[in-house]
Amino acid sequence: MKVIFMGTPDFAVPVLEGLIDNYEVVLVVSQPDKRVGRKQELRNTPIKEVALRNNIEVFQPVKIREDYERIIDLKPDLIVTCAYGQIIPKVILDCPRLGCINVHASLLPKLRGGAPIHKAIIDGYKTTGITIMYMDTKMDNGDIISQKEIEISDNDNLESLHDKLSLLGKELLLDTLPSIIEGTNTRTKQNEDEVTFAYNIKREEEHIDFNKSSREIFNLIRGLSPVPGANAYIFNQEMKIYESIINDKEYKGTCGEIVDITKQGIIVKTNDGSVILTKVKPFGKKMMDAFSYVNGIGKDKLIGKVFE
What global pTM score does this model have? Predict the structure, then answer.
């Protein structure tokens, strides 16, 4: 059975590795390589690196809707996609005899879109999971083949949940593929009344509004940690905030005001209590624990200061 895999970032790496270990992957399709860092060095996508290590041909079209003949020519039996990053045209979806299936990091129809892991945490979901689905021409709209759920704990941030779901995606795909190959799998249409969306995070969504509840602020911070990081402004400079603790103690003052400082960190008033900022990155500096930042600035200069 000839399989083509389409994916780009780290999240898709375990999924591809699982396929390579169990099936014949004849082609890997990934987004074009990008230039990174100050020197703007061209860096392979994580999925391309896996393909090269396993001597698998890599195809990187700039626009898949215009450049897809290599995929069609191979006459694949199955196409598997995971976080590829472009809308796949119908001519590709119709190509493989077993269909085109996708590994998506949410329990569809919840959280359709490109940032389901971020949004699951930011929006306060208690659980999320992986969906294996048939693809169609609409975003994350196809029939569901299988799903597996996991809990989201308060100790999870974007990084930890990303890694858990990445491995779960591999496991569920390998568990599901035999039924797809044999034609015994189920397929369930998504309930449109239950659809929610998880569009890619916009720059303005990274900013902390301390007028919100402590829980909402806590969720935003961990849902954006470590990349891109939530932010607020102090001393007219951006500060990235990566970790926090919900503090039930209420203080008088303005939302966003630094009302106390302890060894735990910087306590900031919210609309229903306060949060303790524990890990921060001041402008132009490295990430550090908040108490180290306080020692460098001085407690007296921070108490009463308001985050904007």
Answer: 0.95
